Amino acid sequence: MVMLKGNKVFLRALEPSDIDFLYKLENDTTVWEVSETLSPYSKFVLEEYLANAHRDIYEVKQLRLAINTLKKELIGFIDLFDFDPKNKRAGIGIIILNEANRGKGLGEEALRLLITYGFEHLGLHQVYCNIAESNKPSISLFKKLGFEEIGVKKDWKWTSRGYLNEILYQKIKK
């Protein structure tokens, strides 16, 4: 895969050396609500995942890439999921682990790079995302990139605070 590079970040395939960052991310309970995680992951399970991360998006219907700063610091992951080549759509999601790296345009650039890749190289017609109604920073980010709200799923996510609505956003290629 071509490395996708912007002015602040680049996206790359996952590597076995990402294991410590992946282990930290997947076992950080503060992000479980977003990632839908219910229990901790072992390093063994995550190493198996990384060993298979090279599989083709057409086969596994998902593409996860590492987000790195230009100084080669791994800061998060970005995904295309539920890839549907027949209907030319995919879900898209992003996580930047350290709050200090949020709000600096890094996630925005990573999303722009992956959306462009999806539209231009995978032939997608649309991408969509599901965001908890309470996640104002993500809502702002996706709206800034031209995603439009197309529906609300009532009481969709169970959290420690009770049920939350989830909003479905969509961006159609122009």
UniProtKB/TrEMBL annotation:
GO cellular component: a single term: ribosome
Nuclease recorded as keyword: no
Pfam families associated with the record: Acetyltransf_3
Stored CDD domains: NAT_SF
Residue stretches in coiled coil: none
Protein's UniProt keywords contain Ribonucleoprotein: yes
Residue ranges annotated for the N-acetyltransferase domain, each copy included: 9-170
SUPFAM superfamilies listed in its UniProt record: Acyl-CoA N-acyltransferases (Nat)
Keyword list, A-Z: Ribonucleoprotein, Ribosomal protein, Transferase
Domain of life per record: Bacteria
Molecular function as annotated in GO: acyltransferase activity, transferring groups other than amino-acyl groups
Matches recorded under InterPro entries: Acyl_CoA_acyltransferase, GNAT_dom
Entry protein name: Acetyltransferase, ribosomal protein N-acetylase
Provenance organism: Zhouia amylolytica AD3
Lineage: Bacteria, Pseudomonadati, Bacteroidota, Flavobacteriia, Flavobacteriales
